[in-house]
Structures are given as C-alpha cells and as structure tokens.
Amino acid sequence: MEDNKKKVTKNKTEGVNKKKTESKKIEKSGAKKKSEEKEIKEKIEKVQEEKAFPDKTKEDNKKKAIKDARRKLNYAKTSDGEEFGRLIKIILIVTVIMVVFYGVTVVVTNKVKEAKDEKSSESQGIQYDNIMVGSMLKINGNFYVLIEDQDDPRISEYDTLRQTIAANPDAPKIFVADLSDSFNSSYLSSESNYESDMTKFKVTGTTLVKIEDHKIIETYDSYDEINDKLKELE
Q1: What is the CATH number of the domain that holds 228?
Q2: 193 pairs with which residues across the strands?
C-alpha cells in the first residue's frame, strides 16, 4: 500500500517536471519565432521603403560611394605626400654630399696647384741663380759668382748671407756655381788660377768671384774674405 503511494507521488512529480520542460521549450520556440518575425518585418519595411523612395536610396548609395572615394583619395594623397617628402630628403642629402665633395675637391686641387706653382717657382729661381763656371764670363753686367765646394762646412752660412743679400733690390746679383756638378768639377784643382781665360781658370775650394764686363775683377777664397765681403754686400 505504501509502495503504491510512493509510485503515485513519483508519477505526479515527473508529470509536473515534464510540463515545466515543455513549457520552457514552448517559450524558447515562441521567442525565436518572434525574433524571426521581427527580422522579416524589418526586411519587408526596408524593401517597401526602397520601393517607396527609390531616389533617396540612390542618393544614400551615391553619398556613400563619394565618401569612400574621398577617403581613398585622401589616403592616396597622404601616401604620395610621404613619398614626395622622402624623395625631397634624398635629393637634399645627395646635393649636400655632392657640394661637400666638390668643395673638398676644389680645396685639394688648389692646394696641389699652389704646391706645384711654388715648387716650380723655386725650381725656376734655382735654375736662374745657378750657373756653370765656364759660362760665367758670358753673362752681361756686373755681378758676383759664389763657386761652392760642397765639402766646405761653411756653405750653409754663405747661403744664408746670400739669401739676405738677394732680398735687397739694390744689392748686386750673386750667382752660384756648384763644383760637385759634372760641368764644374774640372775647375777644382790643388792650385788656383784666377785668369779671365776660362781654359786656365782653377779654384782650390769655395771662392767668391767679382765680374764686371765679362772680366774677373776680384776673388775671395778664404772664409774671412768671403764672409766679410758678403756681409759688406748686405
């Protein structure tokens, strides 16, 4: 008897639960159906609106297309502007590099040219001041010739005095003849001969010779004589 009561109670409970489950399913189904109906209704209204106002739809589409086109155009302009800016920067950098390179090249070229000109001037000066012993009587005018023996330790002292004299425009010209030169070495001898006949002319070492009108006028062959005469000419 007790068991029968329990079975009846259980069956009632299951029935109630079943009804609740079915009720929930019905509610969900109803909500889904309402959502679908709403979506269908909105689509129908949109279609009806497009049919009722076709110009407005076209206008909206046109505005949207214009807006999209403007956005794309602005993007393209921005990209082009950035590319143009990069191109300008590259051109400026290359220009600066070329200007600097050109400037350096000009400076270096000028320096090299100045050095060459200076060297050429010095070379011309040396060629002009240096003569051969055998040709000293062929030069016109009055002047001195310092015949130098390169073994003489006083050579640098004589050259200093000679350069000082050369700086004075009123001082007489002093030429130099180097006895170590192959063209002059034959005039070096153990005995001196200061005749104006160059076939007989000989010196024993460094000698200062005064020449006037193609003739030997005076000679100085000792340190004191040469030094005193050069200082006198300063």
Answers
A1: 3.40.30.10
A2: 202
Same-domain status, 50 and 122: yes
Global pTM?
0.48
Separation of alpha carbons 231 and 229, rounded Å: 5
Q: Percent of the chain scored above 70 by pLDDT?
A: 74
Tell me which residue has tokens 């200076």. Answer: 118
103 has a pLDDT exceeding 80: yes
Nearest to 149 by CA among 79, 96, 226, 77: 226
Paired residues of 142 in beta bridges? 212
154 neighbors 220 (Cβ within 8 angstroms): no
Question: Given 129, 163, 191, which residue is the final one in a domain?
Answer: 129
DSSP-derived pairing of the beta strands 207-212 and 174-178: unpaired
pLDDT in tens, 27-70: 666 677 777 778 887 777 776 766 665 666 667 777 777 887 78
Domain check: are 150 and 123 in the same one?
no
- What H or E segment, with its residue span, contains residue 82? helix 54-129
Give Cα 140 to chain centroid, integer Å: 54
Q: What is the mean pLDDT of residues 200-211?
A: 97
Instruction: Point out the domain boundary residue: 129, 145, 160.
Output: 129
